[in-house]
């Protein structure tokens, strides 16, 4: 029985409460600012480069004064973008919120710059700086805000997409395991009853054959337990074939000469991985619908080969067949086995796998599945 596992989740309402971005985001943020600060470091002293030489200390002072508050203030966009994401704001509301925040950011940033210059050089100097710088600083601040907001939002979107993809993948894995567990649970009581009944009848006629049948049955149960303990629904093709052969050997005790089996297996594929309990349900379907209802002999064909780049497993019989629905769905009365195998293939490989059923009244029944190797 698969156990519940905590699934990774996308961003939640608690994410935005962290004031600072994660370390990897801080590194990217600092690296993005590095060329901007370097250019500003040179530009702030450009007027005096040729007349008095480049003054590194003066350039550093001007860069820290003019850009330092902006660098720190823009980090507040991290919790702001998280808050918007947690509230699931529409695109229009996000644009409106960013428009308001960008104006507020520019005014606060330039206000801090004005105060700094006023404290250092007086109000008159701060006013002259405002008159000379305000328009282009306003534009630069808006661009810096847009870049930071876009970068933080993009990072959050990528992380959310990764988390949702991981959650979906894990949910599919758990669902596939649940489907396999359901198939095991269906097989055990049904097959247990029929097999024990057949062996009990055999004990009275041929004790040696009954002993061999019990050994075969124990090996089948071991296979089921091993696949359950491993927690992996993939097994080697040779093991799945051995399990199916054992199943047919036990069914032959009951069916006798009515069951004739043709095997067409490419032995080069025996080391390939296939879903556990994928072939046996197809065989069981034919036993149930093609052999159980009639008394005359029937033929079961099992073919395993390559179809292009895909592994093909096909089971067909010469039983009464059935009229398939027009939409290509499985016919009414089809048991859990076929539906579960088809669903497991879709969960694991999606459109890369195929599960086809072909049948007509009086023309037997064929189930073919293909999967990546």
TrEMBL record:
Transmembrane segments: 26-44, 95-119, 134-155
All residue ranges annotated as the Histidine kinase domain in the record: 279-373
Sorted UniProt keywords: Kinase, Membrane, Transferase, Transmembrane, Transmembrane helix
UniProt enzyme class: transferase
GO CC annotation terms, alphabetical: membrane
Domain of life (superkingdom): Bacteria
UniProt keyword annotation of Membrane present: yes
Stored InterPro entries: Bact_2-comp_sensor_kinase (IPR050640), HATPase_C_sf (IPR036890), HATPase_dom (IPR003594), His_kinase_dom (IPR005467), Sig_transdc_His_kin-like_C (IPR004358), Sig_transdc_His_kin_internal (IPR010559)
Reactions this protein catalyses: ATP + protein L-histidine = ADP + protein N-phospho-L-histidine
EC number per UniProt: 2.7.13.3
Molecular function, one GO term: phosphorelay sensor kinase activity
Any Pfam family: His_kinase
Stated name of the protein: histidine kinase
Species, as recorded: Roseateles puraquae
Lineage: Bacteria, Pseudomonadati, Pseudomonadota, Betaproteobacteria, Burkholderiales
């Amino acid at each position: 029985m698969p156990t519940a596992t905590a699934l990774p989740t996308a961003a939640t309402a608690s994410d935005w409460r962290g004031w600072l971005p994660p370390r990897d985001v801080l590194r990217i943020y600092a690296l993005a600012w590095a060329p901007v600060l370097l250019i500003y470091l040179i530009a702030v002293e450009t007027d005096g480069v040729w007349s008095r030489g480049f003054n590194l200390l003066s350039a550093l002072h001007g860069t820290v004064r003019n850009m330092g508050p902006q660098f720190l203030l823009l980090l507040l966009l991290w919790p702001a973008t998280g808050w918007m994401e947690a509230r699931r704001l529409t695109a229009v509301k996000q644009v409106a919120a960013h428009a308001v925040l960008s104006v507020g950011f520019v005014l606060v940033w330039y206000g801090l710059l004005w105060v700094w210059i006023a404290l250092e050089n007086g109000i008159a100097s701060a006013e002259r700086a405002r008159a000379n710088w305000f328009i282009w600083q306003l534009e630069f601040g808006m661009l810096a805000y847009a870049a930071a907001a876009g970068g933080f939002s993009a990072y959050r979107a990528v992380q959310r997409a990764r988390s949702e993809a991981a959650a979906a993948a894990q949910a599919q894995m758990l669902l596939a395991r649940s489907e396999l567990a359901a198939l095991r649970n269906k097989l055990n009581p049904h097959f247990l009853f029929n097999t024990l009944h057949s062996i009990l009848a055999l004990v009275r006629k041929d004790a040696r054959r009954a002993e061999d049948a019990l050994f075969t049955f124990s090996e089948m149960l071991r296979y089921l337990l091993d696949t359950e303990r491993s927690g992996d629904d993939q097994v080697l093709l040779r093991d799945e074939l051995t399990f199916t052969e054992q199943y047919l050997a036990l069914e032959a005790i009951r069916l006798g000469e009515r069951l004739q089996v043709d095997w067409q297996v490419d032995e080069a594929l025996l080391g390939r991985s296939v879903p556990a309990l994928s072939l046996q349900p197809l065989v069981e379907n034919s036993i149930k619908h093609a052999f159980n209802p009639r008394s005359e002999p029937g033929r079961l064909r099992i073919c395993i080969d390559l179809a292009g780049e895909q592994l093909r497993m096909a089971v067909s019989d010469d039983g009464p067949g059935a009229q398939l629905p027009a939409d290509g769905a499985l016919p009414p009365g089809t048991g859990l086995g076929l539906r579960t195998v088809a669903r497991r293939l879709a969960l694991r490989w999606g459109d890369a796998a195929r599960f086809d059923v072909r049948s007509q009244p009086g023309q037997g029944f064929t189930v073919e599945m293909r999967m990546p190797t």
